Amino acid sequence: NRRFSAAKISMSLKAGIVGLPNVGKSTLFNAVVENGKAQAANFPFCTIEPNVGIVAVPDNRLSVLSQLSKSQRAVPASIEFVDIAGLVKGASQGEGLGNKFLSHIREVDSILQVVRCFEDDDIVHVNGKVDPKSDIDIINLELVFSDLDQVEKRMDKLKKGKARDPQAKMKEEHEKSALEKIRQALMDGKPARSVSLRDPERDAVRHLCLLTMKPVIYVANVAEADLAEPKTNLHVKEVMKLASELQSGLITVSAQVEAELTELPLDERTEYLASLGVTDSGLGNLIRATYNLLGLRTYFTSGDK
User: Fold this and answer.
1) What average pLDDT does the chain have?
2) How far apart, in whole angstroms, are the C-alpha atoms of residue 51 and residue 122?
3) Is the dihedral of CA 57, 60, 65, 67 positive or negative?
4) Which of 127, 175, 241, 272 lies at a CB distance of 3.0 to 4.6 Å from 204, suitable for a disulfide?
């Protein structure tokens, strides 16, 4: 009989790659999925419809399990990555791809916000200069504005109708309480995930799929020369500070290096990375960090098929 080992997750995970136009989202997406077909070019809104790719999660435990059980086939856990069109200031009011972009974000479980941390006169920045703080603020505020609009509409609806069933009435009270807290945070420019909610309150607003409730990892996209020592890059330092303040994760990668690696045979990739002064490109860390972002658990199975 054939034997197999498999890693299974307790729920599916969909991660959305977002950012301003021309920050390297599609280049990074193509590198993540290796055979990705997302269009990447030097002009805004190159990506319109979201591109989707399924990626295996690197996990040495699966390899060990496969060896111990003498498995002929190993099936790793996987993540669905979604490359979403670039967002611009005013998206919550319909600018750029506006509401279409925001609806795509609403469908994912976590957000990878790609931030440009490299200087290159040949690659146009949508706002004319490289400014990570401004880029992050633009996206975060658009998500806040979108959530605020949704929260206020929901609050108005709850005022008009009252539940009669005692259980439904209690749930409604929990939702009202949560919405009041979330609205105040959004009014202050803070994400919904920063609000301390009791479990019943959190459950009551889960159906809204608020954008700023989703966990975030900031992806600092650096030039090849900064990959070995990213902390010497002032832009990266700024993103590190913001990520810490926003209680979010941070991963540093070079989308261009990742793209070049996909063009090389496997046996030449290690040598290429060594020439850049690194042993790992950071892509594996990004995939693992994305997987861990929601605190998912991996269950391993091994046996005859």
Assistant:
1) 82
2) 25
3) positive
4) 175
Q: In the chain, where does DSSP find H-type helix?
A: 25-33, 60-68, 98-106, 132-160, 166-187, 199-205, 234-245, 255-262, 266-275, 283-292
* CA atoms of 44 and 40, how far apart (whole Å): 10
Helical pair 166-187 and 132-160, crossing angle rounded to 10 deg: 150
Sheet of 298-304: strand order equals 73-75, 3-9, 298-304
pTM of the model: 0.82
Cα distance between residue 216 and residue 211, in whole Å: 10
**What is the widest separation between alpha-carbon atoms in the chain?**
69
CB distance 41 to 135 below 8 Å: no
**d(Cα 219, Cα 230) in Å, to the nearest integer?**
12
Residue in the block written with tokens 């990520």: 243
pLDDT at 233 over 90: yes
Q: Which residue from 243, 10, 213 is spatially nearest to 110, judged by alpha carbons? A: 213
pLDDT, tens digit, 9 for 90 and up, residues 57-80:
777 777 777 777 777 777 777 788
In order of their start, the domains of the chain are 3-144+209-304 (3.40.50.300)
> What average pLDDT does this structure show over 238-250?
93
* Predicted local distance difference test score (pLDDT) of residue 9: 44
- In three state form, how does the secondary structure of 193-219 look? HHCCCCHHHHHHHHHHCCHHHCCEEEE
Give the residue from 106, 59, 55, 94 showing the smallest Cα distance to 78: 55
